[in-house]
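User: Teach me something about this protein's shape.
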Amino acid sequence: AGVFGGDGGEVGVMVVLLDLDKCCIFGNDVNDIGVAMQWLNRSNPDVANLYRLLVNPALSRAYKAIKDQGGARHYEVSIYTRRQLLVHYTSQFREERIELRWDPEWHRHDQVYIPSSIKTGEQVMDKYQGPKLLPEEEMDILRSLQRLLCARDAIKEALRLCYHPVTVITANEKECVRTTEDIVESNLD
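Assistant: First, the predicted structure itself:
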């Protein structure tokens, strides 16, 4: 997790940037379990329950400690993840790389920022504006989005947030400072 927001003194907003890939969820293979559940036609609520069980319990303690230190009037939790297939999708159905394009407001510095107002994978897919996808590709991407948002929602519940965190997807190395600045400047509600 990274905390960004100022250079001393109290700031208006402090962004708590949670690395989904490194600290929020137990186990590197958890996404594989979610994939297997989807292949077995388990429901989205079942997948969501999986992520609830695997949220790192230290996450809520760390968030509380950050808030207890003070320094900001408002704390904005955002989630950061490296998911190349949601930016540069390599289709297994036609052996082609597809640059995925979503709502233009969501794209900044080769990253995708899913606003807090988005609740479902289907809502993300409704904002797709890239090259035409095959039905199998659409389903593959949708399921990946569903898993991502299930993880986001499990973190929201664990931290007792009253909002869905902005979720940032990158295909490259994570750039925490730039990403935090984008979150503060963009008002992605």
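Now, about its shape. The CA atoms of residues 73 and 119 lie 26 Å apart. The two ends are 21 Å apart (CA to CA). If you'd like, I can walk through any region in more detail.
User: That's plenty for now, thanks!
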